[in-house]
């Protein structure tokens, strides 16, 4: 089982390097499946680190990158 830090690092990589948020149909749940972690586990880390839920973070990335 991965650690919280590994889940967070995997989330950061998917969002910042791979830019998965550009995939219109991708949900936060889909991101969790790619990482191989439970939604509630990753959401807990994101709330602690960023103060936002996963879906809100995904929406924020999408809002800030709209051409």
List the helices and strands and how they pair.
Blueprint: H1 4-17, H2 28-35, H3 39-50, H4 54-64
Describe the structure.
- Helix 1 (4-17) crosses helix 3 (39-50).
- The longest helix is centred in the first third of the chain and has 14 residues, at 4-17.
- This protein starts with a helix and ends with a helix.
- It contains 4 helices and no strands.
- The chain is mainly α.
- It is globular, with a radius of gyration of 11 Å.
- It has one domain (4-64).
Entry keywords:
67% helix, 67 residues, mainly alpha, globular
Q: Biggest sheet, in brief?
A: none
* Distance between the first and last residues' Cα: 38 Å
Percent strand equals under 5%
* Number of strand elements: 0
Task: Compute the CA-based radius of gyration.
Answer: 11 Å
The quaternary organization reads as single chain
pLDDT under 50 segments (min length 5)?
Answer: none
Average pLDDT taken over every residue: 94
Order of helices and strands: HHHH
Number of DSSP helical runs: 4
Q: Per the principal axes of the C-alpha atoms, what is the gross shape?
A: globular
Tally of discrete structural domains? 1
Structural class by secondary-structure content:
mainly alpha
Helix content: 55-70%
């Amino acid at each position: 089982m991965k650690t919280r830090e590994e889940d967070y690092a995997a989330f950061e990589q998917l969002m910042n390097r791979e830019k998965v948020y550009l995939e219109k149909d991708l949900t936060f749940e889909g991101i969790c499946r790619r990482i191989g972690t439970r939604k509630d586990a990753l959401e807990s880390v994101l709330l602690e680190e960023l103060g936002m839920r996963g879906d809100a973070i995904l929406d924020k990335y999408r809002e800030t990158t709209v051409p």
